[in-house]
């Protein structure tokens, strides 16, 4: 008997979020789930060699096996490094004083 699990694959852009709920065979990896979800056809700019994948907010290896009810998240590249953004805000704040 082939066992299946229910998962979600999520990709968020600044203007919208897309969530695909799919049923996959037990033993499916995070990367396989992204491919099976069809989300790469909707967002061809996603490059799995560059975009990181996570499960519930934690970056995981693309080969990680999924569990029932996992939420696979595809992360976009950051436009600005968070540390650099903090430095810029600190400089602005110091200049305003």
TL;DR of this structure?
The protein is α+β, with helices and mostly antiparallel strands. The chain contains 3 helices and 5 strands; from the N terminus they run ββααβββα.
Query: In which order are the strands of the major sheet placed?
Result: 2-1-5-3-4
Number of domains: 1
Task: Tell me what the CATH architecture is.
Answer: Roll
The strand count comes to 5
CATH class: Alpha Beta
Query: If you consult CATH, what is the topology?
Result: Ubiquitin-like (UB roll)
Number of helices: 3
Low-confidence stretches: none
Largest sheet: 5 strands, mixed
Average residue pLDDT? 90
Q: What characteristic shape results from the CA principal axes?
A: elongated
Characteristic terms for this protein:
single chain, 97 residues, alpha+beta, Ubiquitin-like (UB roll), 5 strands, 29% strand, elongated
Topology:
Elements: E1 4-12, E2 17-25, H1 30-37, H2 39-42, E3 53-55, E4 58-60, E5 71-74, H3 82-96
Parallel strand pairs: 1-5
Antiparallel strand pairs: 1-2, 3-4, 3-5
Report on the structure:
There is one protein chain. The protein is an alpha+beta fold. The chain has one domain (4-96): Ubiquitin-like (UB roll). The protein contains three helices and five strands. The protein has a five-stranded mixed sheet with strand order 2-1-5-3-4, covered by helices on one side. The mean pLDDT is 90.
């Amino acid at each position: 008997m082939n066992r299946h699990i229910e998962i979600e694959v999520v990709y968020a852009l600044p203007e919208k979020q897309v969530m695909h709920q799919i049923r996959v065979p037990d033993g499916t990896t995070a990367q396989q789930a992204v491919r099976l979800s069809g989300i790469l056809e909707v967002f061809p700019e996603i490059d799995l060699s560059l975009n990181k994948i996570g499960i519930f907010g934690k970056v995981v290896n693309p080969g990680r096996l999924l569990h029932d009810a996992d939420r696979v998240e595809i992360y976009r590249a950051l436009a600005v490094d968070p540390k650099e953004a903090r430095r810029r805000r600190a400089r602005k704040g110091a200049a305003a004083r």
